[in-house]
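Service request form, structural biology core

Requester: graduate student, group of Dr. S.
Request type: structure prediction, single chain
Budget code: on file
Notes: please return the result as structure tokens.

Sequence provided:
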Amino acid sequence: MEVYISGRIEYIRDTTGQVHISDQTCKKFDRAEKMLRARGYELCNPASEKMQRLLRYSLGMEKMKYGYDGDFFSFALVTNIVSIWRDCDAVYFLDDFTKSDSAMTEYSFAVATGKKLLFQDREDAQCYINSEVYKDWEEAWLPLEGDGDEEEKKDSGT
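Core staff response, request fulfilled:
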């Protein structure tokens, strides 16, 4: 099963005006990727260097071929939505996804297209899970190591 990681992505501009993902964001997404890979999932990590290079290349091609003049962030969101639709079976939501308009758009799209939903945060799993799809919200709760919740999850037998 391929899983897309969704969460708030913080971008910074360097002195040349180039936009980059912050180190803190990269570390957060990398932690999620490692945990999900350890559970046997294939991953689509929008904060990975590979995905960022692909986005920049694709945006450059769109500008050359079609005269696209939109901004990087709009293009990134559309590209990520297409990736969720075409390549992924599930979406893993980091604990800060509700603080990002783009991640909330990814959530709405995942729900609308019937993707499996997984959450880092226990309260998000309880709040956002549709009981018609899951028997129990705990099926959708995958805490990251170091969150403090993983021990509680082990104790609960899930």
